[in-house]
Amino acid sequence: MNPRLLLAQATIASLLLSATPSQAEKPITRIAFGSCLQERRPQPIWDGVLSTTPDVFLLLGDNIYGDTRDMEKLKGKWNVLAEKPGFRKLRKSCRLLAVWDDHDYGENDAGIEYPKKVESQQLFLDFLGEPKDSVRRKTPGIYDALTIGPKGKRVQFILLDTRYFRTALKRNPNRPKGKGPYGPNESEKAEVLGKAQWEWLEKTLREPADIRVIASSIQVVSTTHGWETWGNFPKERQRFLDLLNKTRSNGVIILSGDRHAAEISKLEGVLPYPLFDVTASAMNQSLRPDNEVNPHRIGDRYFRENFGLLTIDWSASSPKVTMEIRDLVGKKVRSADTDLLKKQK
Fold this sequence. Notes:
Blueprint: H1 3-18, H2 21-25, E1 30-34, H3 45-51, E2 56-59, H4 71-82, H5 85-93, E3 95-98, H6 102-105, H7 117-128, E4 144-148, E5 155-159, H8 195-205, E6 211-215, H9 234-246, E7 252-256, E8 262-267, E9 275-279, E10 297-302, E11 307-313, E12 320-326, E13 332-339
Parallel strand pairs: 1-2, 2-3, 5-6, 6-7, 7-9
Antiparallel strand pairs: 1-11, 4-5, 8-9, 8-10, 11-12, 12-13
């Protein structure tokens, strides 16, 4: 069978399995999201998340700290998260979507070289409750897409897999002080998404939507800190931005995690509208404050436990989206908003 057709069928099947017709037509107004959950630590943040009454919660990766090639151990850690009382309440109250990052994928900073990626994918899908006979289980990688809402109020969720196909990271031989160990890989063969996922992404971006929420476990806009970022693969990052332009994709917001600190970044002059990357991390860990440079950052980083929240106002001719970082108890600590967004002419 044609691989593109197979991937299209996977997307359609996922939509049908994830929502009843009435649910699919109900407009989405509140999207909560977060990353980096140590599964054995207390998780009081779920009370703060639940207080915002989200329609959707999006797990952005490092949802557990698996870090193993033993699949029984990895399965056990997924089970620990699944049984957390706050997380169980969340699953009952709203729709759950998810991507993975390195630690729940199975190995720190790993990509295509991780030898247990096939088995790990099945455990990830088990955790999400993916049917055993779904096409998604037969397609390498965990990427997926789902559109919710009636015409004029459609939110498309694009869930990227930045692990399964990604080329191994390149270490910077001259690591600058205060930065991470990785540098840009300029090779034409260096990949983030892989051929099949790129083809699927182009097709998916051409589907009608009013707002597109793209989940990338690693940051897209902030590129120079030397840790994991699309900036480690500059040609792939440029390809991503070029594809947004090529497909005339309106209303895009990036959600990312990974960094153990929260921030809102804004990239201007590349698309017909500013591209926001909202990084929410970590949900039950905190980081010592630092002075990491990000020329695209709005305001300051936030280093305590946090989650993110998008609130959509559909009442105007162009939907307005408020982007927030919320603290442990659900209090707003960082925010930005945009008339989402100038549609391409």
